[in-house]
Amino acid sequence: MGSSVSRRILSIALSGALSLTAAAVISAAPAGADPVSSPPLSGITASDGTRVVSVTPVPGVRRFDVTVYSPSMDRTVDLQVFRPADTSVPRSTVYLLNGASGGEDSGSNWPDQADVQGFFADKNVNVVIPRAGAFSYYTDWKSDDPELGRNKWTTFFTKELPPVLNDSLGATGKQSIAGISTSGSSVLMLAANAPTLYSSVAAFSGCARTSDELGQAYVKLVVEARGGGETVNMWGKTDDPDWAANDAVLQADRLPRIPYYIATGNGLPGFDENLQSPRINGNVSTLVDRVVLGGGIEAITNACTHQLADRFSQLGIPATFDFRDNGTHSWAYWEDDLHKAWPMLRDSIGA
Fold this sequence. Notes:
By secondary structure, this protein is of the alpha/beta class. It has a single domain, classed as Rossmann fold (3-Layer(aba) Sandwich), CATH 3.40.50.1820. The protein has 10 helices and 9 strands. A 9-stranded mixed β-sheet has the order 1-2-3-5-4-6-7-8-9, with helices on both faces. Helix 9 (about 285-315) links the parallel strand 8 (about 260-265) and strand 9.
């Protein structure tokens, strides 16, 4: 695919299809004992000032809305936390990152769009889903942005959050991380920047190649066209070394040798592109958007992921790459990807 053609597809697809993405826990208890599921603890405070500000139970489910203060950003961050059925012993943690919108908007986050509660119903693990950081790429920005504010997400996710949340949850300290779309790139760089933090990484439909011409166009359309921010405040001008420093393909040699599950479709219609799909709900316009725009984005992420696979092969990094023979940039496939990645995530953290 020529770069000019790719950029046209990208421009058309991302301008509309980034909005396309906007379009629990029982295991066997010891014999004779009833499982106990306790809430996270509030008030946990670290020496750097990070603290668990509040914990609010959600009626009828083992979910808690947790607010954590980040000193590096001087703001609170909202988390959705699903607890295991049995918390009588420490449990490990899986982080699920949302896409471009950070899950801030209604209907574009893991619990609303995927069967998170049902899927994890028989799995004794903490599931943590941040709902913040829209259009930030979950990275540390150079400067505050007039529209998107202060973004120090690498610092928050790798240094501030884990200690206080592990204490709040009574967790084992073992954790894995998974991301979709833009955060499918972010999770790789989070692992590169904190090589001992995560036990495994899963990335679905991400574009890890962020510093070449096409990658920069992709990032700018997310941050600037969709988010209203300025990438110069994130990684500087296009020739700034920070672009390459945050390119997971170029930085792959810094990645820890842990299990990876990396998946993408190719943009062709798949099992969820039909009018009977609950996510399409008989809407012809939604179906057309999914096929044309969502398909265009997924074709781009497919090309990016092939570059990442080639780089992993060069470096001898073992990983599972799943190049699906169809599928658009949409939640049905990410839900399926999570199911397929789960055995790797589970085994790596002993869940």
